[in-house]
Amino acid sequence: MNRCKVCSTPVLQRRNRKKLGALSTICCIKKLVDLATQSGWDHEDARKFFAEGYVCYRTVEKCSLLESLLIAKLSGRANDPSTLESSGTKRRATPTEHAAAVKVVVTQSGYKKTYTLSPSKEALGKSLGRNSSNAVMRHASHDQTLKRSMLRELCRMLRAEMKALLASPDFMMKDVSSLRNFSWNGLYYTMKEKAPTLVELLQSCIPQRSTRMKFVMVMCAAMLAGTHKRCTSVQSYVSIVLYLGHAAKQVYNRLQKLGICLSTFMTRRIIDQMGENHDQRVLDWVNSLKSTISTNQGPVARMQFGGLDNSFEYGSESDVPFPQPLEVTVSPCSDSSSQSDSSETNSLQCPNMSPLSMQLESPNGGELLCGSSPIPSHPLHSPLSERYSDECTLSGSEKILTDQPSSETVSASEDDSDPTIGWCGFRIVGDNIDKTVRPRDMRHNHQSTSLHYFHSYAVKDRVDVSDLSPEVPLVTSKEIDVNLFLPSPEDCQSLEANFCTLMMRILVKHIPGISHLSSVVLQHIPHPYSVAMSKKSEVVPLGVLLKNENKLDDMMDILDGLHKYVPSIRTIQHFEDPEDTSGEPEVTDIEIDHFCQILIGGDQLTAARVRGSQSIRRNSDNGRMRLDAFIPVVEDWHTKMCFMQVLWSHLYKATSTLDVGTLYQLKILINRRNVSKDVKKDMNACEDFLELVTSSHVIAAALHSVGVSNSSDFLLNFSSSTLPSDQQAALESLVVSICSKFINISYPYRDYKDSSDHILKYTMEVMSLGLLYLEFKDAVREGDGFRVLRCWKFFFLLFRGTGHKNYCIEALQLLASYYYILPPRYAAQMLWGRFVNIHGKTGCNISADLHMEHLNRLCKDAISHLGANKTPSAISKVGKALGPLSEIITNFDAMTGTVVTKAHTRRSEEEDLNKLVTELVHNGNFHMQPGRFHQNFKSIESNQLISSINVNKFRDWMMQQLRIFLKEDHIW
Fold first, then answer.
1. What are phi and psi of 870, to 5 degrees?
2. CA–CA separation, 504 vs 851, rounded Å?
3. What does the DSSP assignment read for 626-694?
4. How far is residue 300's CA from residue 284's CA, in Å, rounded to a whole number?
5. At CB < 8 A and 24+ separation, what contacts does 346-350 make?
6. Among 60, 89, 138, 296, which lies 20 to 30 A Cα-Cα from 817?
């Protein structure tokens, strides 16, 4: 396409026959040169001026020289050559040079008048006569008088539009709910409707289309804030972003002067208002579960965590401590914080009906998914009840187990049963939050303050367990098979199969020769609820309670405060004394609480404090005071830390510097000075080091099995075939061989064939426990409850073998609760509600207590931001506002297109890994050499922690603890 030599724009056809004649089409140089020559130009000068090329009509119109030429041609006369300078500029014309004036004839209502335009407005008149609006505006802008008039009119229009915007409620900061519903698009469309001229004017100043809307909104918001003090919705939004970024007070004060944000006082006021109704979603879940209790279940028998308590059994007349009930009144549980005060009380005439006979069974026949690989069986609640069916229906890589109703269970008829209400179950996770406030000016009466409060959140279940029965199992210690709490041969086989998958991931990642096989290695081990666990978790922070969980009195107050999140209904039974012959027998009222129990998770200390509080209040009058509604559960992140401490105490010694291949010697080799003997000092550093050491052992074992000394020669001896399928089979065979030779974590204990090479046994111990750690971490990442439960069985043995009594009891409590003590519904909820997914992606789950640590960090940062205003009231308000603040910042990032990279950038570990692999290979840690030993680990054995357990004493200890769990050792 031809382009203009002046402005480089494409030369298009322009038709304007009345004025330009031959110049209406593409102008060639010859015509222009001839026209200039006729006007008095020298032919050579004209040719040099235009050169060779094309000139578009717009350039012809703008060029002062060509404008004079066109005027001369159209006026029918040639200008004097003296009037045209060689540079092409136009000389100022005298009035006598104008051949004819431009006149305007106005005819209106028979009236006709002719106006002669001044020379400065002649071009404007001509453009107006041609009906060219663009030319009219262009010529009018050159006239200073008309330009000032146009600006005055534009300002009047903008002031009118600003008034229209001020009348719109979208820019008004009414309450906090307007921030939650804030939308850039909504404000933009409002502005285009109310102030189209202002939006068009501002957009024309911004060249990039992608950023126009946001910049226009910020500029308009600043103008509106300067006009009216209530138009601060955008400024409030920006202030919250600055608050979450921990901006200093001076930043607020300076940006407020520019109309960009609010002051620190107003920002804190907004934060305080955000804490109102912060738990509304949780209360909605509570109301949903409460309706489930009232319509489906009826009265629920009282149960404390751990089994039966001192509740009266109404199974027969001899068990009834009072005469038969005369009337039963069902009413919501009285709670000052509950929102069910308006519920009506229903009176049921139920003569000769006991509480358990009133109980309605929830429909059985729900489906429970289980993996295709060997997995722990679903909880057996009593040997007298039927187990779940073993018949499996394959669906892809999943199997479906059907919950068969027990023949001993009396359920309601189908005609009388109510439809199942959607499941809104949730669990509460809490932990202590410790903060030390150090004053700037310390005095004898103004010292550092140590704050110990309780922080918690609620997370909604992603797995629907509404079809499972909520009935309390009746079981004694004699009916319990403790073998279910220990790893079975099937568990060991499944664990070794997962070890093979983990080892294949390590090999294809770090050995270049087989990196092309990464696509055939399973990156996400599937389980029945993989889809559900890939969804984003719904988390609601519940705020900070100003109590210390380390004190039992405060812990009971904490549970009383959390009781408002317990779905509960209270029934009142009226009894008459049949022996009273006075004619008006005395009526006794008994209040019975019915709960949909809530799991409360945390570390081992939190779970122990909950049980201690329940034990202290076990003789209270009603279920709420007895804290029956809470089921304490220990979470996984603190358990993983305890397991790492077990591994460190077993294999990490600071005196083993000269023992090549030990953890401490490998730490010195790669200079990991942040790795400490106490894992709690730097959990991340110890975890990173353990994963690196485990990977190096896997690679060294693979090199030893193939018969090479470095990774570059691995592919040559790995497989003689170049087909990917053959190489995949060779890789699978290799990891199976490694697992059979160098992995030993079985139960019952399996001794290694040669007991004299203690260096090899130490290496096997590091590799076995390291892979168990990776298995547990991967199970949590995938949200696989079955794999986590299997790892807990091995942790149970390891905690017992190393004397970690508290976590050993917690492991037994968890396993017994799943298999026997808890109803099916709560057992499944305990197993699948242990994870939180904040990204909504596959393989992005974390432990619930780890997410609690993340919230604690955010809360501590917010408390630090309070400055000198660290009062209990301010801290409580900050804790309640964490949830709404998170929603607002997430909405802000989505609307502005901000990409927040939450993944940590990690430095390459290949150099450290190669050092470790070279050290292990050159030292021959995987070669069988009888008589070798480390000086600091002379008597170490393979699978030593499990083999050191006295099985008989261990079983006796388990039975003793189970009797305590089931309250059989207590006299009430």
1. -85, 65
2. 30
3. TTTTEEEEE-SHHHHHHHHHHHHHHH--TT-TTSTTSHHHHHHHTT-TT--SSGGG-HHHHHHHHHHHH
4. 21
5. 350/325
6. 296
DSSP state of 106: E
Percent of all residues in the chain with a pLDDT value above 90, rounded to a whole number: 32
pLDDT in tens, 531-553: 999 999 999 999 999 999 999 99
pLDDT of residue 904: 63
- Answer whether 63's CB lies under 8 Å from 88's CB: yes
Q: Cα separation of 778 and 500, whole Å?
A: 13
Q: Indicate the helix (H) or strand (E) that contains 456.
A: strand 449-460
Q: Which long-range contacts (CB under 8 A, 24 or more apart) does 46-52 make?
A: 49/88, 51/5
Local confidence band at 301 (pLDDT 50, 70, 90 cut-offs): very low
Tallying the residues shown for the chain, one arrives at 972
pLDDT at 149: 87
- Tokens 């450290």 correspond to what residue? 912
Instruction: Give the separation between CA 902 and CA 838, rounded to whole angstroms.
Output: 11
> Is the distance from CB of 216 to CB of 202 less than 8 angstroms?
yes
Dihedral, CA atoms, 951, 955, 960, 965, nearest 10 degrees?
A: 120
Least confident of 773-782, 889-898, 911-920: 889-898
**Alpha helices (runs of H) in 707-836, residue ranges in sequence order:** 714-718, 724-742, 758-782, 785-802, 805-816, 824-832
Residue matched to tokens 């008597």:
939
- CA 873: distance to chain centroid? 28
Task: Give the tens place of pLDDT for each residue, 201-237.
Answer: 888 888 777 777 778 878 887 887 777 777 777 888 8
> Are 719 and 707 in contact, with CB atoms under 8 Å apart?
no
Decide if 397 contacts 526 (C-beta within 8 A).
yes
Dihedral in degrees, nearest 10, Cα atoms 414, 415, 419, 425: -50
Q: Which of 810, 482, 471 has its CA nearest to residue 642?
A: 810
- Per-residue pLDDT at 666: 95
| Cα distance between residue 430 and residue 548, in whole Å | 12
DSSP line for 676-697: -SSGGG-HHHHHHHHHHHHHHH
The answer, yes or no, to whether residue 421 has pLDDT greater than 60, is no
- pTM of the predicted model over 0.70: yes
How distant is the alpha carbon of residue 657 from its chain centre? 42
Q: Secondary structure of the chain: what % helix, strand, coil (to 5)?
A: 50, 10, 40
| Least reliable range by pLDDT among 441-445, 553-557, 612-616, 777-781 | 441-445
SS3 60: helix
